[in-house]
Amino acid sequence: MDLDTVKKYFTRGEVVDLYAKAANSLGLWTSEKMVFHKLFKHTDRLLDLGCGAGRIALALCAEGYKDVIGIDYSNAMIAEARRVARARCLQVPFRVGDATQLKISNLELDGVIFGFNGLMHIPRREGRRQAISEVFRILRHGGMFVFTTHDRATANFRKFWRREKMMWRSGKQKKELDDFGDRFESTPLGDLFIHVPSAEEIRQDLKARGFKIEADFRRSQIANESSAVREFSDDCRFWIVQKPGHS
């Protein structure tokens, strides 16, 4: 799966509109508020990575977080995030960037958020590992990385993944897929790629880079989200990890 194919989905007008609506009316999920408020001070320098139309970054700014930036690889999403910021008179710098090659200095940030399963839209495991390495590099010692993923162990999809495993074992999986857990499916908004990992896969990738895993849990374990949030996003797994050391 090549990155340009993945990015096409996030440049479609209908998709940008969906993300803009979330930025304007949905804001932070209850679970996100609980996690972010516990981990981050209002003076922390934070990055909303894979920011889309700015849902998380703009909500944090509106809540008094003073130093938040947003980065996304979609020019269309960044243009929309800037438009929403201007309309709401919020001062958040947004820029186009690649999570696997961040133009940010070493040890610059107190926290990084990769929300709405964004890390899993990076094709190939080595690509996702490179993004994790970049986050590690730009975090200060003791800095926190929060992200979400789907989970292959979700009960509703066990039959699907059993069938997929049989397809991979017989070499009959879709030719454009790189790793077991990849999905590339047609949706009403276009063709969408996402990787659905196992929890053990994520633990391996985090530990390989040196992150300390503080917690992981399903969203539904800590919050009863509104129907609007549940419609926007399926239940997901939060990961809270720390770069060891003291700043």
UniProtKB/TrEMBL annotation:
<dbReference type="InterPro" id="IPR029063">
    <property type="entry name" value="SAM-dependent_MTases_sf"/>
</dbReference>
<dbReference type="GO" id="GO:0032259">
    <property type="term" value="P:methylation"/>
</dbReference>
<dbReference type="Pfam" id="PF13649">
    <property type="entry name" value="Methyltransf_25"/>
</dbReference>
<feature type="domain" description="Methyltransferase">
    <location>
        <begin position="47"/>
        <end position="143"/>
    </location>
</feature>
<dbReference type="InterPro" id="IPR041698">
    <property type="entry name" value="Methyltransf_25"/>
</dbReference>
<dbReference type="GO" id="GO:0008168">
    <property type="term" value="F:methyltransferase activity"/>
</dbReference>
<protein>
    <submittedName>
        <fullName>Putative S-adenosylmethionine-dependent methyltransferase/MSMEI_2290</fullName>
        <ecNumber>2.1.1.-</ecNumber>
    </submittedName>
</protein>
<keyword id="KW-0808">Transferase</keyword>
<keyword id="KW-0489">Methyltransferase</keyword>
